[in-house]
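During the no-cost extension, the postdoctoral fellow (Dr. R.K.) reprocessed legacy sequence entries with the updated structure-token encoder. One reprocessed record is reproduced below for audit purposes.
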Amino acid sequence: MSLIVALKYKGKIYMGSDSLAIKDDTKYYLINANNRRIFPVKGCSNMLMALSGRLIESNIARCLELVPEVVALNGKVDFEFMVTEFVPKLFDAFNNRNLLNTHDDGYYCDSDMIVAYKNQMFEIFSDGTVLECDDYAVIGCGGDEVLGSLMSTNNIDDPKKRIVLALKAGLRDNNRVAYPIIVTDTETCEFEVICE
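Re-encoded structure tokens follow.
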């Protein structure tokens, strides 16, 4: 599984994740930049995306141009764009690879997602529902512990420290989440790797 947290702070979004994936009881540590749970969205500066779920869905999302150039240039990434263009394009790509599951109330994929653009943060559920988040978002294993940590560290004025503390809370008692921790933000989109 995985654990991903995003936090809004002073006009940008900070994101962090663990680095573990499990397939058929084999553990994979996602340290290579092409394998990380968090990645820049192709063709759009200051935009990050993270998926908690199947790695194939993450592979597809990181290789697609989900934001048309005109939208990226004009900075028109908002809630409506996410609902009417971003998610349908992503789900169409999943459907073309026969990855969408059918349920009584529609189609769904196997991943929950966080998309961050400059100072906006969106949580996308596996059925395509989009929520615009005000303060923070958490997806994956250990979410309750992470939320508790985030709520108890409001007085810390260092967003990276808060994210690392939150991820460590999720790592503590969960064998489906592991080091290293990866941290980045929408301003730099540079990644810091934190080992134990």
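The first helix runs from residue 55 to 63. The two ends are 19 Å apart (CA to CA). The remaining legacy entries will be reprocessed before the final report is submitted.
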